[in-house]
Amino acid sequence: MSRLEETLRAGRLAVTAELPAVDGGGVPAVERRLEPLRDWVDAVNVTDNTAAHAHASPLAVAIAVLQSSVDPVMQLVCRDRNRLALQSEIVGAAMHGIENVCCLTGDDVSAGDEPEARAVFDLSGTDLVDVARTLSEGRYLSGRALEPPPRLFIGAVETAGSPPFEHRLQRALRKADAGARFLQLQISFAPQDLDGFMDAARNSRLSDRVALMPSISILSTGRALRIMDERVPGVEVPDSVITRVEESDDEARECFELACELAEHALSLPGVAGLHLISFRQDDAVARLCERLGIAAAAER
Predict the structure, then answer these.
(1) Are 262 and 191 in contact (CB under 8 A)?
(2) What is the pLDDT of residue 168?
(3) Nearby residues of 78 by Cβ (< 8 Å), 6 or more positions away
(4) Read out DSSP for 110-145?
(5) Confidence band of 66 (pLDDT split at 50, 70, 90)
(6) CA 86 → CA 37, 102, 124, 131, 142, distances in Å?
(7) pLDDT of 162
(8) Domain at 113, CATH number
(9) Between β-strands 14-18 and 274-279, what pairing exists: parallel, antiparallel or unpaired?
(10) Residues 34, 282: contact at Cβ < 8 Å?
(11) Using an 8 Å Cβ cutoff, are 114 and 54 in contact?
């Protein structure tokens, strides 16, 4: 059982973080990116060509993370592979002891720096959750036996940051029906929107079926917030939030305060099982946020 699954099954607060993209340098490069995170997290997300930009493969990086004694969450997007390739990636990961898989549809290639690339989208993110569950039951999609069945802890991503909440909820419920056991919720800078989604999740008992982990982004400038608002699909940053940061005496400090406020609010909501932290800087921001919120280091939790 992966550390992340064990933590969530035990009902302990789980903390995951996103590993900055890796383009080379071998295991030492991965270890350098892990260093600010490893003491605080239960698992680290390894992204898959995030925002349609090519990087080192998530399988290769996830293996390096595991070799560095950290539990990886291997993300897989449907944009770049058909169902055959996606199945082989999951089975290959399981051969190396990687159990946590996070299934996403993926941003369109138009979001990246190679828009001429041909998108695949043979499956949706929900379909991929079902594929992973099928593999864990000991068979490929074709029905061919898979022995031994890979042990998998299957997750997905859902947008909780904007209405209509009923649409978001129904999509999340379909992912739970397909086999997802944790959902990392997309970044939201509007606490009232997360409130609305979590209310719907509790009323539908979704939060009893899957672990819900809101994402908190730790940025450093108002410009970074503007870029996120304009270029990251599914993320909206209110003008008031950008103005608050840009008019402050110290933009980095104000961004950190904002992240702390959003994280504290998320943790106050019934049904929240943990946090997914995203710091685009290779520094101690994740550690400082955990300390500020009174979240103990992973070993102590």
Answers:
(1) yes
(2) 87
(3) 86, 103, 104, 105, 106, 120, 121, 122, 123, 124, 125, 127, 128
(4) GGSS-TTSPP--SS-HHHHHHHHHHHHTTB-TTS-B
(5) very high
(6) 28, 12, 11, 9, 13
(7) 67
(8) 3.20.20.220
(9) parallel
(10) no
(11) yes
Q: Which amino acid is at 132?
A: A
In a domain, 255, yes or no: yes
119 burial via Cβ count (<10 Å: 0-12, 13-18, 19+): middle
Is the backbone peptide bond immediately before 238 cis, with ω within 30 degrees of 0?
no
| Residue of 187, 194, 185, 184 lying closest to 163 (CA atoms) | 194
Give the residue-averaged pLDDT of 121-134.
Answer: 98
pLDDT band at 163 (very low <50, low <70, confident <90, very high): low
Residue type (1 letter), 243: T
Instruction: Tell me the per-residue pLDDT of 213-227, one tens digit each, with 9 for 90 and over.
Output: 999 999 999 999 999
Number of domains comprising the chain: 1
Domain of 118 in residue numbering reads as 3-293
User: What are 6-19's pLDDT values in tens digits?
Assistant: 999 999 999 999 99
Give me the half-sphere count of Cα atoms (radius 13 Å) on the Cβ side of residue 290. Answer: 28
Contact between 178 and 225 (Cβ < 8 Å): no
Q: How far is CA 43 from CA 38, 149, 153, 181, 238, in A?
A: 8, 23, 12, 15, 30
**Structural domain contains residue 123:** yes
Q: What is the mean pLDDT of the chain?
A: 95
* 299 domain-assigned: no
Residue 167 burial (CB count, 10 A): 11
